[in-house]
Amino acid sequence: MHITERVPGEPLIRKRYAEESRWRQAKEVHVYSLLAGVPGVPSVVAVEDGVTTMTLVPGTPLSDAQVPPQCHRDVYRQIGELLHTIHQLTQPEFGYITTEIVDPEHHNTAYMRRQFRVTLDRFRELGGDPATHELATERVAERAGLFGLCAGAVLCHNDLHEGNVLVEPDGDRWRVSGFIDVENAISADPMTDLAKTIQYELSRSPAKYAGLLAGYGPLPRSGLARIELYRLYHALELWNFFRENGTTAPLNDIAFDIRQLAHLP
């Protein structure tokens, strides 16, 4: 869909987009403009037909870096701080972002009921286990009141897992230098962003979890309960993604996660 290359002799990268992916180019330029001033965000230098030139953010994806365990909590504390900074960028409505908010909803309850309905329907269409579908559906119905506790929509990265976080060594510690890939950005409850980072942290490390929440700071009303409900959404969405793409190996583990999350008190 796009090719990323270094600009020789310059601290820049150039992304080339195929014709069918020009909307992704436009979205990326728009989202990076919203994020201007957030630490670790590349600046867009030039936009041409199918080509975007941006400043190069230093660092290695956290998923590829050899970060020692004793540094995990501090790295995730920095990720929490980064998410908190992003979440100060309030948005007028809830929905998927391109160069605007697509099919916007005025309230989080309407938005998340719609998102869960679409995702659960797709899970069933793709052959997901009927009992798991029923369990998840009941859980959402029971806990849907949590959606209304969101005070307003904010900009959410919506994919801030270790593959999209850049780090570099800094003395005896590791520093989060920035992040990449804003293609999934949405306007939503900030707790859904925290939930995705937690759900995609596959080691389920207590140190990483504690660091993330410490860095983020005080959560809003019923923040933890909202995070757990959104984790269920992200697990369903991920199962659908792999099933649609024919990647079957992780499906059983993700389905187990869905059932576990649907049983949480």
UniProtKB/TrEMBL annotation:
Record domain Aminoglycoside phosphotransferase: where: 15-224
Top-level taxonomic group: Bacteria
Keyword Kinase: yes
Keywords noted in UniProt: Kinase, Transferase
GO molecular function (one): kinase activity
A Pfam cross-reference name: APH
Protein known as: Aminoglycoside phosphotransferase (APT) family kinase protein
Organism for this UniProt entry: Actinophytocola algeriensis
